[in-house]
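Working notes for the structural subgroup meeting. M.R. asked for a predicted model of this chain before we commit to crystallization trials. I am recording the input and output together here so anyone reviewing the notebook later can reproduce the run.

Input as submitted:
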Amino acid sequence: MGETVWLFDSFLFSASRACCSPFAIFIQIQWMCNLLNSCSWVGSCGLCQVSSNDEQNREIKQIRESMKGGNSLAFLYHDINDLEHSNQVKLPRVSVVMPLKGFGEHNLHNWRSQVTSLYGGPLEFIFVVESTEDPAYHAVTRLKSDFKDDVDIKIVVAGLSTTCSQKIHNQLIGVERMHKDSKYVLFLDDDVRLHPGSIGALTAEMEKNPKIFIQTGYPLDLPSGSLGSYCIYEYHMPCSMGFATGGKTFFLWGGCMMMHADDFRNDNYGVISGLRDGGYSDDMTLAAIAGNHKRLITSPPVAVFPHPLASDLSFSRYWNYLRKQTFVLESYISRVNWIMNRALFSSHCYLSWGFVAPYCMAIIHIAAALRVASKEYPPEETTFTSGGFLLVSSLAICTIVELLSMWNLTRIEVHLCNMLSPEAPPLSLASFNWGLVFIALVVDNFLYPISAFRSHFTQSINWSGIRYHLKDGKISKIDRSKDIGPNYTDLGGKHLYGKKGAPTKVSFLSSLARSLQQWHQPKKFDV
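Returned structure, recorded in token form:
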């Protein structure tokens, strides 16, 4: 037994010395610097101010100043004169297209926030479902009957897709049914919770700059308490980089995209054909088209939307979601797009595991220090512990700075959302578990390369009960069967097949998911 302990200690001390080698120190310092640099993207801390916070803080300040000036509707327009009838009647017609799949706990609330928009111009809402058997069809039918003729709501049955993803198919069918006079089309996911003035703000930016190709927004994830929901929150946090460039961005979120309706009517830049002919991801495809044709993508600071995650979002459902996200890098529409995706694939995997490496080394340093403290060793055999302690301390400081930055950006976005939706129950950071946020940072960065490599070698993915197969970056085969997919969607926990459905398949990480359920928190976000 004593010899086994001695061998273990020898191995541990050797590993700790290796982690103090010049190369290992370079890796750790490099990723500590990257960790600190990421703070310039996700928030601000102390004297470190970034554009994303500046843009949103400026918006909050403008709303406050307008309210002090007597404009109680500043969350709609900073200038109260814009609310005059003479200005409202000039607003262009907008068609809102929402592809639906399944029905979950937050859908009805989200749909109501969308159809009760305070946009003053002509507005129509087109809900597109795959078939009348979809649970969403019956739910949105009841929604339409509730509003009767007060809101222009259309329900369209798109049928099954054959050449592209079902979501894209639904979007294109919705575009075909939009009003002939619509100037803009707004694509929304059914899990987007709009502010009363969101459509007006997006339209105003499009009117101000006709060169805008796509206007997008980003989700503010509201974790439900499980580790899986915090991993989603951490995964989406870099989306806020879209605000760090003064509105101009190359990031695009498919949950909110406003475009010129004529781009679809005339298939400008190959928008229709690019999506229809083998398209898997709407946002990645459109972002690639924008890049190929040097078109402008922007995001106004007010385009941040509360995104409540399902209360029963398990770790295995997070893994399924991550698989879908990494799979988009396998789809492409051109050689340049393929090169960009390969670069993203390589850099993201390198950065992700590079992020995790210092924490693995820190565990070795801490374990070695504890063994040294528990037994007496000659001083010459334990000199490595001081260097290891310094590296661990530096990593801890960087981690605290990172978490403070994430807290600060989330605080600002929560405050902005509360100001933009004064009628809604206020959001709060009170239920955020920052210990779980840290764990999610490590877990998400560790699993991303695994998911990316699996997507690369399988070239197929299950998305809401439909399995898509890729060939040369485009969908080549679509399999539909209730036996090959889950009964619920990943983020919203939406029922896909009503009461009848197949049991959920267990992924190869199910055992890991079960072991991590101990971190599940009972508290929900009250929104």
